[in-house]
Amino acid sequence: MLILASASPRRRELLARVGLPCEVRPADVDETPRDGESPIDYVRRVAHAKAVAIARGDHDWVLAADTTVTIGGAILGKADDEAAARAMVRRLAGGTHQVITAFAIAGPRVHAQHVVTDVTMVAMDDAAIADYVASGEWRGKAGAYAIQGIAAGLVREIRGSVTNVIGLPLAEVIAALHAVGGPAPQFARGVAS
């Protein structure tokens, strides 16, 4: 059985799309970035902590993930309010940023890796930014946007995994589950990793 150590409905939906049913058991870990911690180290630490917090040492497989948006080395987590959301979107508008998702699979041992995707957004004036923030779609989203929603119209280019930007790099997760002997969707048998 696959256990998803995340409350993210997007991650659960992505797994369901590829035929990987899971039981949801959110992990309660501190997701505060540490002083001087790089974005990659941050998401890897949090994903690992979530997996270990839920793993029971039995025959279940635990999948945990953490996603962040980064630009210029800064970690852009979830905005606390509309002002913070406007500031984040303004910072991302007209440029390229990275979305980093780390995932950890706990079974007999813990396997962890991360995926980086470059995202280029269109330029936006203050009115467009205010309209987007007024939609409320930014709530609970790293970098204050959701590419699977109306923010798709704000993205000019993606280099890398689109499911990574949504919150879980599916191709890499499926390959990793296969490599460690974990559960796999029927269609993934014989898929090269």
Give an overview of the whole structure.
- The chain has 193 residues and is of the alpha/beta class.
- The protein has a single domain (2-188), classed as Maf protein.
- It is 32% helix and 24% strand.
- Strands 1, 2, 3, 4, 5, 6 and 7 form a seven-stranded mixed β-sheet that branches.
- The longest helix is centred in the first third of the chain and has 16 residues, at 39-54.
- The radius of gyration is 17 Å and the shape is globular.
- The mean pLDDT is 93.
Helix content: 25-40%
Could you give the order of the helices and strands?
A: EHEHEEHEEHEHH
Provide a count of the helices.
6
Q: Quote the beta fraction.
A: 15-25%
From the coordinates shown, what is the CATH architecture? Alpha-Beta Complex
Q: What number is the mean pLDDT?
A: 93
